[in-house]
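Practice problem: predict the structure.
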Amino acid sequence: MTEPLSSADAASPAVHPHIRLAQLLIWVIPLLWIVNSVIARRAPGVITPHVLAIGRWMLAAAILAGFTHAELWAQRAHIRGHAWQYLVLGGCGMWICGAAVYFAGQTTSVMNISLIYAASPVMIAVGSVLWLREPFSKRQVLGVVGALAGVVHVVVQGEWQRLGQMEFVPGDLWIAGAATAWAAYSMLQKHWHSPLSAHARLAVICAGGVVVLVPFAAWELAQSGPALGEQAVLLIVMAAVFPGVLAYWIYGWTQSVLGPGPVAMTMYLGPLYAAVVGWLLLGEALAMHHLVGGALILSGVGLVVAGQRGR
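Answer:
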């Protein structure tokens, strides 16, 4: 399995094949996260948010630990000494981002969720420049602005005056918290260096998230009962494999190669990918606002990713 690269390695011409691979893989991440949107729509009435989240990350941690148990044992001193970091990362990436979206969907609209979550890549880009001192060119800034404009254009269906009609509800606070937590998760992973491979590190982060989730999941089980049906178990397995192990590992590995800012741009692709999937699989019509927004998003992401080649 491929090991993560250091910042110095990522800047070296000798590892250009890794950079090209990372630039290709970041386009796959939104497809995997779309699965989580499907799961979120199916979960109400089947399984509660925290129980789904803890089941997802317990299974993901077990899968990853199965591949990396020798490394985890060899690095046990490091893991004990930095346990608080993995708890923070697990709290941000697996608890807040894992359950907040499910709660938000109960009281807020898809438009609000998309627009508020679109702030996360902007926060990551700004934080990467100001805090992590990541290089970010004017062309890449233009790409961020263009991609954000494309997301808004898709969400408001080309009618920008609809932004003035938006009403904010308590669920919007859940999404704002999730967007902020995702920005923190992305930047802290880059800031806190680790001797662990990408797989082993994600296994420990998943375990940290499970620890944080335990009291919340226990409370939900006490309210709804401990029994889980076959459909609930299926949702847990799907969430663990696709938007869990695969999406988070690719996100973490590509971030170690390209940096937090460019990889965060993949979040802008979500509305565009969702529209295309709906067209191909559900027969939903593609409208002009999808095409215009898609062109802006793809151009913006392309500008940011292409900026890595000059490093």
